[in-house]
C-alpha cells in the first residue's frame, strides 16, 4: 500500500470477540463442556433440541458475565432477556440459537490499551450470553459433511467493541488486553487453538476527516493475534484499492484464509440478516440485584493494571518487567512466591524470571504452571547468587542442571564443585603465576594498553574454571599490576 494512500484514508475497526466460558457444564443443560471428546458424546437431549426438552440457565455463566462486566466498569443490566436467533444451518439442531438481543446482561464499559507508549480508551458496547453452535467437519467425509454437536450449547460471552480502533496494531493490543483480562478473571482459558477465544473483525475505511463511517466488511473467525493483524491489513488494502479504482465496498461477511493470506467473500450481508429475534418463552428474564453485584465484586481478583502498578511500586520494577510478569496471574504469583521464599531483592528474581526461566519455558513450549523448576528450587539458586557462592555465569549452568533434574541448587553446587572461590590466597597464587608467565602482556598493560587487562581476567578465570569471584579477581589484579 503506497504511503500517500495511507495518509488519505483512515481505517475504522470494531471487534466482536467470542469467549468460551470456563464452566463445567453447558449454558442450558447438564452436558459437559470439556474439549476433545469423541464426536457427539457430550450432546444431551437439550443440546439436540429434541421435542419437549426445556433449557435451564447455568447460574455460573451468569456469575462469569457479571464478573466481566464489573471488571470493565460496565453497566450491569438489572433485567436481561434471552432471545431466539432464528436461522438454518446443519450444526444448529434447534433451528435457532439462544442469545441476547435488545437486553444484554452487560452494557457499556471500556478497556484501556497501550500502543507505542500512548494509552487509548476503547469503548465496549455490550457483552451478551449465548450458546455456541455445533461444528461441521469436512476432512474425513468425501462429498459429505459430518456434524459434531459436542460444542452445541457451550456458554459464550460475546464482547462487542465500539468502532474505536484505527489500526491493526490497536486491534491486536485490544484483543491481547481482553485475552489477558478474561484469563485473570478465570472465566475463560483463552485457548485459541481450541476455539475458546475467537474474533470477528468489522473493518471499513473512510477518507481522513470524514465523519460518517464507510461500508464495512466483517471478517469471521480469526483465531490468533498474528492472523488478526494480517487479516485486517489485507482487508484495508483491498478496500482502498477497490474504492480508488472506482469500485464500491459491499457489506458482506468475508473469511480470512491464513494459507493464502487473503480474505474472500462468504455471503452477502444485506443491511441486516432477518433473524426474527423474539424472547425465548422457555427462559425467564434474568434479574440482577445490587446485593448480587456486590457479592461478585468481592470475588474479583486484583486486575492486571492494578497488579502492574503495585509491582512497579513495591518491587521497584521497570515498566517492561512489570508488564511481562503480570501478563498472567500464574506468572505474577510465581514471581511473588519467588521473592518471598528467596528473601532476595526483587530485581534479581525478576531478571532471572524474564530472562532464563521464560526462555527455557518458551523453548520447551511450557506454561509457567508446568515449569520443571518450582519457586522453592529457584529461590535456592537466587540465594546462592545473592550471597556470592556462585557467579551469574555459573548460575546459568546450575539452572540448566536443575531444569533437567530434581536436584536443588546447593546439591548441584556441591556435587560439581562449582562454589565460587573467595579464598584470596588461592586467587593470589594463580594471579602471580599468570603475571610471571606473560611478561609481554604485562609490559603492554603498563605502557597504557588498558584493553590487555581483560586478557589477565580471562586467564585467571580459565585457570580457576570460572569459580573465582569476578569482583575479587578484578580488585586483586588491579593492585598487582600497578
From TrEMBL:
PROSITE patterns: GATB (PS01234). One of its GO terms (molecular function) is transferase activity. Its EC number is 6.3.5.-. It comes from the Bacteria. It catalyses: L-glutamyl-tRNA(Gln) + L-glutamine + ATP + H2O = L-glutaminyl-tRNA(Gln) + L-glutamate + ADP + phosphate + H(+); L-aspartyl-tRNA(Asn) + L-glutamine + ATP + H2O = L-asparaginyl-tRNA(Asn) + L-glutamate + ADP + phosphate + 2 H(+). GO terms for biological process: glutaminyl-tRNAGln biosynthesis via transamidation; translation. Keywords: ATP-binding, Ligase, Nucleotide-binding, Protein biosynthesis, Transferase. SUPFAM superfamilies: GatB/YqeY motif (SSF89095), Glutamine synthetase/guanido kinase (SSF55931). Gene3D superfamilies: 1.10.10.410, GatB domain, N-terminal subdomain. Residues 333-481 form the Asn/Gln amidotransferase domain. Pfam families: GatB_N (PF02934), GatB_Yqey (PF02637). Belongs to the GatB/GatE family. GatB subfamily. NCBIfam families: gatB, PRK05477.1-2, PRK05477.1-4, PRK05477.1-5. Heterotrimer of A, B and C subunits. Allows the formation of correctly charged Asn-tRNA(Asn) or Gln-tRNA(Gln) through the transamidation of misacylated Asp-tRNA(Asn) or Glu-tRNA(Gln) in organisms which lack either or both of asparaginyl-tRNA or glutaminyl-tRNA synthetases. The reaction takes place in the presence of glutamine and ATP through an activated phospho-Asp-tRNA(Asn) or phospho-Glu-tRNA(Gln). This is Aspartyl/glutamyl-tRNA(Asn/Gln) amidotransferase subunit B. The gene is gatB.
